[in-house]
């Protein structure tokens, strides 16, 4: 049976053949092997099954003509090329996208009744406050209904407990000076106000207990730029017992006490971007009523530098002469000032 051999095998055999002739061994090799030259295409794949898939691996790209100048191309040709490639024409102005994550303040802020937390419901003033609260409740109910259209799990009765957790977490992180973690619990407007003047101070803050359960007293919704971009604000009333002590950088007590506890009545505003699916309720602001008396500023400690007053030089009378100095004694300052020539002296001298 004839054997087919490649060109490489033939070349090797031809290289060996002269040596075999010289040694007389050609008669042994000739009957053992019959040569037949077969051509093989080196570029052809050994397995032609997946020819189509192999062809799809390579993508032919039209290379641009780099020698072509943009001035030589007409507007119609440029338009057709851009339309073919799916490229939009450039605009003469520059636009940058921006994200509004919170509002700039409180819209339709809640006005706390004067003497809240001190007057009983049984008294006439307390009953009047309760009546005013019921009158303002209608707008809040409409706002709560709109919040529920975006967030079905929202409940004004259960939101007080959730708001208290956010309130405690935000103030704990503020005392610990966690400037990155606190951003999850406070809005971008509230962050600089909470972290202002915290540097070089030690803050000890503790939430002790709630004297009254937190409750929602006010709710409002507003749109920003478009009607679909909705923000919700809920005001929660907190009547709690807290401990606060602030120390300066030298360890001196500036405000509060770690021993005494105080009853705190606050109206805290929480905000949420309800149009955003991943929006969160965050602490936005605190309402400070106008009738509240102003607080006294904390004492500021600073280093006192005493100014040393220099004694003026003694004036000599017209007939008085300066006393000669003894050996080893120091020359007084007044004499040094008199001995210096007037053009070189830094201070004016007395003319005798």
Automatic annotation (TrEMBL):
Keywords assigned by UniProt, alphabetized: Mitochondrion, Ribonucleoprotein, Ribosomal protein, Transit peptide
Annotated region (Disordered), positions in chain: 306-352
Subcellular location: Mitochondrion
Family from the record: Belongs to the mitochondrion-specific ribosomal protein mL45 family.
Residues in Tim44-like domain copies: 140-288
Listed name of the protein: Large ribosomal subunit protein mL45
Domain of life: Eukaryota
UniProt cross-references to InterPro entries, sorted A to Z: mtLSU_mL45, NTF2-like_dom_sf, Tim44-like_dom
Chief location: mitochondrion
Gene: mRpL45
Transmembrane feature ranges: none
GO cellular component, one term: mitochondrion
